[in-house]
Amino acid sequence: MYAIKITVNGKEIELSGFPGEIISETIVAMLKTLRGVEDVKDAVIELKNKYENVKGIER
């Protein structure tokens, strides 16, 4: 089992039990499909909206 911490827009989202387990296990499974990844001990994923603060682009 993995500990998971998710922060959205600067606010930490509390995850425990089933939601935390399903999200962490899904992420680990996806990472293991990547070439060169055999075992996942820890991982850091940073996700940013690529259109945020870009002049002239509307969503």
Can you give me a brief rundown of this structure?
This protein has one helix and two strands. It has 59 residues and is α+β, with helices and mostly antiparallel strands.
Explained architecture:
The protein has one domain (1-59). It has 59 residues and is an alpha+beta fold. The chain contains 1 helix and 2 strands; from the N terminus they run ββα. The longest helix is centred in the middle third of the chain and has 16 residues, at 17-32. Strand 1 and strand 2 (11-13) form a beta hairpin. A two-stranded antiparallel sheet has the order 1-2. The protein has one helix at 17-32, and strands spanning 6-8, 11-13.
Structure characteristics:
59 residues, two-stranded antiparallel sheet, flat, 1 helix, alpha+beta
Order of helices and strands: EEH
Q: How many separate helices?
A: 1
Query: What are the low-pLDDT stretches, counting only 5+ consecutive residues below 50?
Result: none
Estimate what percentage of residues fall within beta strands: 5-15%
Whole-number mean pLDDT: 89
Total tally of structural domains: 1
Evaluate the radius of gyration: 15 Å
Anisotropy-based shape: flat
| Count of distinct strands | 2
Helix content: 25-40%
Give the quaternary arrangement of the chains.
Answer: single chain
Judged by helices, strands and strand pairing, the structural class is alpha+beta
Strand arrangement within the widest β-sheet reads 1-2
